[in-house]
UniProtKB/TrEMBL annotation:
GO terms for molecular function: beta-mannosidase activity. Residues 202-278 form the Glycoside hydrolase family 2 immunoglobulin-like beta-sandwich domain. This is beta-mannosidase. Keywords: Glycosidase, Hydrolase, Signal. Residues 288-443 form the Glycoside hydrolase family 2 catalytic domain. Transmembrane segments: none annotated. It comes from Nonomuraea thailandensis. It catalyses: Hydrolysis of terminal, non-reducing beta-D-mannose residues in beta-D-mannosides. One of its GO terms (biological process) is carbohydrate metabolic process. The lineage of its organism: Bacteria, Bacillati, Actinomycetota, Actinomycetes, Streptosporangiales.
């Protein structure tokens, strides 16, 4: 029997604080920052530069306290179950210490029956300041190199709390996941690990018991049941269920995602999850994921915590993000190592949608001490989460860390380390040992980037995974993605600002300027402008800066994604940095911190399409990532800017399932555009950079009409219109549009569908700065 303890909490500083010692109401699950915000004691950390005035919160001790009534329920045991305490805490019940915690990533269970009393009980959770603990450990173990002057490597806590090149420094404390009382008698299911085979499941069960009486353990799934008995002294068993008739679970785009309810019982205790039957393997040299014996090309996004305060990420919000991911055609998410082990709701959605999940262990971009207490904490959190997530078919890979092996090889760590530990023992020993013991059905990879062996250069693109940051970080034009012929790209990205409505809500600047947007990347604003050179004009106004930098981000990532897809099957994965943001910021995300889709999202929807027409060098490449042949008449035409065909070619083509075909296009010295059409797919390629194209000034007819749920905006081109875009959020922050970045030839039309419940000015919908194209002036 479980009873949540989420009501009646208060919060107060344990010592001096700017707002004084008074207790305020606290939301559980929640965090100190969100409680202070709700009480009106701090300004919104996401607006203007308010973040910079809140550093004291992470340097303050905090006390959460509540009272609850309890009466003997007849059970032999009652435990306090804490599913997430952030981070270093002492838990007291009626003034007596139940236990301590030092790890945000673990679940804690404290025996509480002897301290409970009939009637009112008082529960306190005393949090020590995260900075005090981390700096104490840093002094004890010696500094470790990392990208920021922050001690996040010395506390088992979400690293990006301490700031990142896309995130604010908002160091939290709080009860961030559920807390409650768990009462039981006789026996309870302490751990259930269903290790799935393609035709069945081996259910590993560990039971905790209060006596020596035999315990019957049962498991049933898909109409198959098994039973065993644990005799005196026994606490573990494995129940094998063979289910040859079960349908396979497939990644998105490769088949259906049937799920089957698995129920396990021990005495009166019951555990229930949905599982999917599938196998997953990793071809380690090529880094190819193989599901049910079939290689799968990974089209994915990196995922960061969707809010700096994770308790605010509701199931509805996750569903919206997943809808945005799958809406592009993505089939995978990589849970990045500077965040958390994601929630049951996250994995449940992925299971149902067929999104493969790559879960990093939470280590990122820094050298980590391996000594105690960290070695024990890391093993405990790994055991906890590997077991917790083992039921989910969407989980296809465990990865040891993000960029730490690269850091040791390439970031000048060795001299400052002076022989001290840096995490290698975690990535090559502790973590693979835990995965091999608890979840051998899934592959483990020591880190990313990683080339398959400790003595190989992690930046070798011919094997394993690579991260490509030379383009953005090295101020190179995005065409330099063509310099890479990788096996699997696990990270690459290019910045762009958030949507107008998101930026407007986050800044009190009048008027807005490029510097009104949060920008955490060193030199980021200069890189945005430098990245435009040769591709787009230099902006003279904020509105031009906003459109062109967003457009340049979209083009950069489309270029990279399409190149890597054109290399299939040599390259078998492209994972974009990143899907989402945790606050309003100029970043690499496709969906901004308010959940609005940037132009990048629309470009990726084209680039992730099951069937893609793209270019690789001078050739046109047809990419067919489906199980059916793609055949028909391929029509190629070299055009001038009036749309007149100067040269053409038609060819019957057949692209086999999960394959590519390359075709040489027609050429003409006067051509400025190339079109390619196969069936319903048509694309227009510009044959030079925009400043060199000599576009005519845009001419178009546009009209607006009301339709259910919003407006239809139809644009008919009188001239070529390059990357036509509509930004209705400038008129209604809640408005959205179904498409962006459409290139039209003279005489062609497109209708944009705007979703809004507001009355909008039809003229404004078809005017600058709402309706834009590259050659508008």
């Amino acid at each position: 029997m479980y009873r949540a303890l989420h009501d009646g909490w208060t919060l107060r500083a344990d010592g001096e604080a700017p707002h004084g010692p008074a207790a305020i109401p606290a939301a559980v699950p929640g965090s100190v920052h969100t409680d202070l915000l709700a009480a009106g004691l701090i300004e919104d950390p996401y607006r203007d530069d308010n973040e910079t005035r809140l550093g004291w919160i992470g340097r303050t001790d905090w006390i959460y306290e509540t009272a609850f009534d309890w009466h003997d329920d007849g059970h032999e045991r009652t435990d306090l179950l804490c599913e997430g305490l952030d981070t270093v805490a002492t838990v007291l019940l009626n003034g007596h210490e139940l236990g301590g915690t030092a790890n945000m990533h673990r679940t804690y269970r404290f025996p509480a029956r002897e301290l409970l009393r009939d009637g009112e009980n008082r529960l306190e959770v005393r949090f020590r300041a995260p900075y005090a603990y981390a700096e104490e450990q840093q002094a004890r173990h010696g500094e470790r190199p990392g990208p920021y002057d922050e001690p996040y490597a010395f506390i088992r806590k979400m690293a990006c709390n301490f700031g990142w090149d896309w995130g604010p420094t908002l160091v939290t404390s709080g009860i961030w996941r559920p807390i409650g009382l768990s009462s039981w008698s006789g026996a309870r299911l302490a751990e259930v690990r269903p290790l799935v085979r393609g035709d069945g499941v081996d259910v590993h069960v560990r039971v905790e018991r209060t006596g020596d009486a035999p315990v019957t353990v049962t498991a049933d799934v898909a109409g198959v049941s098994v039973e065993t008995k644990l005799e005196q002294g026994q606490s573990e068993t494995v129940l094998r269920l063979d289910v040859p008739h079960a349908e396979r679970w497939w990644p998105r785009g490769h088949g259906a995602q049937p799920l089957y309810a698995l129920t396990v019982r021990a005495g009166s205790d019951e555990w229930r999850r949905e599982i999917g039957f599938r196998t997953v393997e990793l071809d380690t040299d090529a880094f190819r994921l193989v599901v049910n014996g079939k290689p799968v090309y990974v089209r994915g996004f990196n995922w960061i915590p969707d809010d700096c305060f994770p308790a605010r990420v509701t199931p509805a919000r996750l569903a919206e993000r997943f809808d945005q991911a799958t809406g592009t055609g993505a089939n995978a998410l990589r849970v990045w190592g500077g965040g958390v082990y994601e929630s049951e709701e996250f994995y449940g959605l992925a299971d149902r949608l067929g999104l493969m999940v790559w879960q990093d262990f939470p280590f990122a971009c820094s050298a980590y001490p391996e000594e105690e207490p960290f070695r024990s904490e890391v093993e405990a959190e790994a055991r906890d989460n590997v077991a917790r997530l083992s039921a989910h078919p969407s989980l296809v890979l465990w990865c040891g860390n993000n960029e730490n092996i690269e850091g040791h090889q390439h970031w000048d760590w060795r001299e400052p380390l002076g022989g001290r530990s840096w995490g290698a023992g975690f990535y090559h020993d502790v973590l693979p040992s835990v995965v091999a013991e608890l979840d051998p059905t899934r592959p483990y990879w020591p880190g990313s980037p990683y080339s398959g062996a400790p003595d190989r250069d992690v930046r070798d693109p011919s094997t394993g995974t690579v991260h490509i940051w030379t383009v953005w970080g090295g101020d190179l034009g995005y065409q330099h993605y063509a310099d890479y012929t990788p096996r699997f790209v696990a990270e690459f990205g290019y910045q762009g600002p958030p949507t107008y409505a998101t930026l407007r809500a986050a800044s009190s600047d009048e008027p807005l300027t490029p510097d009104s947007s949060h920008q955490k990347a060193p030199g980021g604003q200069a890189k945005l402008l430098k990245g435009l050179r040769g591709h787009l004009p230099e902006p003279r106004t904020f509105d031009d800066w906003h459109y062109w930098t967003q457009l340049n981000q979209a083009r950069a990532m489309a270029f990279g994604v399409q190149r890597f897809r054109a290399l299939m099957p040599y390259c078998m994965g492209t994972v974009v940095w990143q899907l989402n943001d945790c606050w309003p910021v100029t970043s690499w995300a496709a969906v901004d911190g308010a959940g609005r889709r940037k132009p990048l999202w629309y470009a990726l929807r084209r680039s992730f399409a099951d069937r893609l027409i793209t270019r690789l060098g001078a050739e046109v490449v047809l990419v067919n990532d489906t199980d059916e042949e793609w055949s028909g008449l391929l029509e190629l035409a070299a055009l001038d800017l009036s749309g007149r065909a100067l040269a053409g070619r038609e060819e019957q083509v057949t692209v086999s399932a999960r394959a590519t075909v390359r075709v040489s296009p027609p050429e003409d010295p006067g051509a400025r555009l190339l079109t390619a059409r196969l069936g319903d797919e048509r694309v227009v390629f510009a044959l030079a950079e925009d400043p060199d194209m000599g576009y005519p000034r845009a001419e178009a007819a546009a009209f607006t009409e009301r339709e259910p749920g919003g407006y239809a905006v139809t644009v008919t081109a009188g001239t070529v219109l390059r990357d036509l875009a509509l930004f209705p959020d400038r008129l209604d922050p809640d408005a959205s549009v179904d498409d962006q970045l459409v290139t039209l030839l003279p005489g062609e039309s497109v209708t944009f569908h705007v979703t809004t419940d507001k009355e909008l000015d039809p003229a404004a919908l078809t005017s600058y700065p709402v309706l834009r194209c590259v050659n508008e002036s």
